[in-house]
Amino acid sequence: MDRFIYADNAATTRLLPQVLNKMMPYLTEQYGNPSSLYSFGQTARQAVDEARDTVAEYLNCRSDEVFFTSGGSEADNWAIRMAAHAMAKKGKKHIISTAFEHHAVLHTLKALKKQGFEITLLPVYENGIVQIDDLKQAIRPDTALVTVMFANNEIGTIQPISEIGAVCREKGVFFHTDAVQAVGHIPVDFAGLNIDMLSLAAHKFHGPKGVGALIIRKGLRFANLIEGGAQEKGRRAGTENTAGIVGLAEALKLACLDMEKATPPMIAKRDRLISGLLGSVERSRLNGDPIKRLPGNVNISFEGIEGESLLLLLDFKGVCASSGSACTSGSLDPSHVLLSIGLPHAIAHGSLRLSLSQDITDEDIDTLLEVIPPIINRLRDISPLWEKILKNEKYE
Ligand SMILES: *Cc1c(COP(=O)(O)O)cnc(C)c1O
C-alpha cells in the first residue's frame, strides 16, 4: 500500500531515523562487548553508561537505578515477582492492583495467586480512573506491593500516580507502576512521584523493539532476574543489547525534548477525531475520561457492530487500528479493560482504538472522519444486533 494511516501507536511505534542512526555504529563496527577490558569494548561500555545517564536525566532517577531489560513485559514480571517474593519472607503476601492492568501485570499476579498470594484488584469506574479512597481502604498490614499502571494502553486514562505514591510511601508499601504508555508521552518524574519501581519499553516511544527498563529505587534489595554475568550489577545478566539501549535513550531524549511542543497539537487532533466521530455516528460513546487521557488516545464504542469487521474494512481503506473486541485477542470475551469500566459485552465488542503519533496529519484526521462513519453504517445495515437496538429490543 503506498499510503496508509498508522493509528496503532499504543501497540508499537515507528523507529525514528535519528534513533536508528544513533544505533547503527553498535550494530556494525562497534560490536565490542561492553563488559570486556580492551579499549575496543570500552566504546560500547561508554555508550551504555551514557544511555543510562540519559534515562536517569529524563525520568528524574539515578543512573544506578536504571536496569535495562528486553521490554515492558519483562520489567513488569521482574518488579512484581521480586517484590512479592521478598515481602513474602516477611509474611506479607497481599498485593493490590487494578482490574485493567496490562496482561504482563495481570497474568503475573494470577501466577502469584496460585503460589498463595492474595490479590485485590481495585475498580476503575466508568471513567477508567482509580480512586484513592479505595486504595487506602484496601491496604492491610500484610500488603506487600501496590502495582497500578501510569496510563492505560486501551482507553488512555492517566492514573493519580502522585497520590498513589504518597499513600504507599506513608503506609510503607512498595509501589510499582507500569509506565509503558506514559514514558515519552507525558511527564514522568520517578523520584518526585514516590515511585519504587517503574517499567518502560522503547518501542512505545519511537525506539527499537525488544528493549526496555525497570527503574528500581536505590536501596531496594530484591532478587536478581537472570543469574549469570555481572551485567546490570549482576541483577539481570546477559551481554548488553548495546544498540537497543542506545536507541532507547535517544528515543526517550527526543520524545521528552519534543513533548511540550508536540502535545497541544496532538490533543487538538485527538479531540477533533473524538468529537467528529461522536457527532456523526449515533449511539457511539467515548471510553475513558475525556480529559485525564493520553494525548494520542481515542477509544470509541459503536453499538450494534463487531470490532473485527470494522478493523478489516478499515484495513481495506489503509487504516491500521485496534479493537477491544474478541477475535483480535484470541479469546471470546471482549477486552478486560472495557469490561472493567462497566461496558456491557455487546457494546465492548464494537470498540475502536485509534492511537495517534506525530506522524498523523490534519488531513489524516479528515480522512478518518470521512472513512469511518460510512463503514459503521454499512456494518449496521447487515447487523441483526443493530436491528434489535433500533426496535428497542433487549440484547446482550
Ligand atoms: C506494550 C505494553 C506492555 C508490554 O511491553 P513489551 O515491550 O511489548 O513487552 C506492558 N504494559 C503496557 C501498558 C503496554 O502498553
Description:
The protein has two domains: 5-12 and 259-390, Aspartate Aminotransferase, domain 1 (Alpha-Beta Complex); 17-254, Aspartate Aminotransferase, domain 2 (3-Layer(aba) Sandwich), CATH 3.40.640.10. It is built from twelve helices and twelve strands. The chain has helices at residues 17-27, 39-59, 72-88, 103-114, 132-138, 161-171, 242-280, 307-316, 336-340, 345-349, 362-381, 384-390, and strands spanning 5-6, 66-69, 94-98, 118-122, 143-147, 174-178, 197-201, 212-216, 284-286, 297-302, 319-320, 351-355. The protein has a seven-stranded mixed β-sheet with strand order 2-8-7-6-5-3-4, sandwiched between helices. The chain has a three-stranded antiparallel β-sheet with strand order 9-10-12. The protein has a two-stranded parallel ribbon with strand order 1-11. The chain starts with a strand and ends in a 6-residue tail after the last helix. The structure holds pyridoxal-5'-phosphate. Residues 71-73, 76, 102, 104, 149, 153, 178, 180-181, 201, 204, 212 line the site of pyridoxal-5'-phosphate (PLP).
